Amino acid sequence: MTHIKICGLTTEESLRSAAENGADFIGLVFYPPSPRAVMTDQAAALAKTIRHIPASARPQLTGLFVNADDALIADVLNHVPLDLLQLHGDEPPQRCRDVRTQFDLPVMKAIPVATQDDLKHLAAYQDACDWILFDTKSGNSAEKGGTGQCFDWALLSDIRHTTPWMLAGGLNRDNITDALQRLSPDAVDVSSGVEEQRGVKNSAMIKEFIETVRQSD
């Protein structure tokens, strides 16, 4: 079964929709330039909305960080019970290892993809992380994910994956079935594809996306 991550949630309504419709991961963004960013106290309040879900069925709470230092990650973890740390910046493999060791949590590294050259260091990351996420590389260096654009999926066709991996970048209810049939990823990640406007999630679109993935499994 393909795992599903709904990323960039900012409201109790959208988080509850993701959790109650069967998302496996819920992503909170701790990167202020993003329109989907949340403050630590806001994230702590959001996390409380899924406490009633039994641990065995509760989505893994994922924190997205961009080139964050230990102090920022530690401050978030002091308030928000994250299950997974997503590194979405320019972190080298050794930084991924260090974060995993320092905080004793699994780490997912995002790899921005536009050309084959963007995948040349993939092997080193696969050895350093628990998850790899392939996302669309933006032309804007400050924009980290959530572009609403797909990259060329054919770039992944010959990769030998030694680490569980997640597909992101422009996924939505209209293209997700094709993506699953072509690539068979371990998980998929959606953000802008379930938004009614930039940064604003739509609960009905979240439900429909999850249902479409489940029907395709």
List keywords for this structure.
alpha/beta, 7 helices, 10 strands, globular, 217 residues, 21% strand, 8-stranded parallel barrel, 29% helix
Mind explaining what this structure looks like?
- This protein has 217 residues and is of the alpha/beta class.
- Helix content is 29%, strand content 21%.
- The protein has seven helices and ten strands.
- The strands form two sheets. The chain has an eight-stranded parallel beta barrel. The protein has a two-stranded antiparallel ribbon with strand order 9-10.
- Helix 1 runs parallel beside helix 7.
- The longest helix has 14 residues, at 203-216.
- The protein starts with a strand and ends with a helix.
Question: Which helices and strands occur, and which strands form pairs?
Answer:
Elements (H helix, E strand, L loop, with lengths): L2 E5 L4 H9 L4 E5 L10 H9 L11 E6 L4 H8 L6 E4 L5 H11 L3 E7 L8 H5 L4 E6 L28 E3 L8 H8 L3 E4 L4 E3 L2 E2 L1 H14 L1
Parallel strand pairs: 1-2, 1-8, 2-3, 3-4, 4-5, 5-6, 6-7, 7-8
Antiparallel strand pairs: 9-10
Helix pairs in contact: 1-7, 6-7
Q: If helices are DSSP runs of H or I spanning 4 or more residues, what is the number of helices?
A: 7
Categorize the overall geometry. globular
Which percent range describes the beta-strand content? 15-25%
Low-confidence segments, given as residue ranges, are none
